[in-house]
Amino acid sequence: MKKFIVERKLPGAGNMTPEELQEISTAFTSAISALGKPFTWLLSFITEDKIYCIHVAENEEDIRLHAKHGNFHVHVIEEIKLVIDPSNAS
Predict the structure, then answer these.
(1) What is the spatial distance between Cα 4 and Cα 24, in angstroms, rounded to a whole number?
(2) How far apart are CA 51 and CA 53, in angstroms?
(3) What is the Cα–Cα distance from 58 to 38, expressed in whole angstroms?
(4) What is the three-state SS of the chain?
(5) Could you read off the pLDDT of 48-67 as tens digits, one per residue?
């Protein structure tokens, strides 16, 4: 399985209400169920006008299929090759 970061442009994303966030979360998880294959949504980061999602999937096509099932726009998909954090500094 590979890890991907997915960029979704959504104007006003940073101003979403708790109810709207719950709606999106429910749609993400429902789309995963519809896939019927290994796929994990780890978390998402929301900025003013974008949502960045971290997913674990077999390939980029599964990311696109998840988006299709959930009717989500996908603007950029990048495979995460490496991760660094403060623990790498020592």
Answers:
(1) 19
(2) 6
(3) 7
(4) CEEEEEEEECCCHHHCCHHHHHHHHHHHHHHHHHHCCCEEEEEEEECCCEEEEEEEECCHHHHHHHHHHHCCCCCEEEECCCCCCHHHHC
(5) 999 999 999 999 999 999 99
Domains of the chain by residue range: 2-82
Question: What single letter denotes the amino acid at residue 26?
Answer: T
Domain made up of 2-82: CATH architecture: 2-Layer Sandwich (3.30)
Sign of CA dihedral 19, 24, 26, 27: positive
pTM for this entry = 0.89
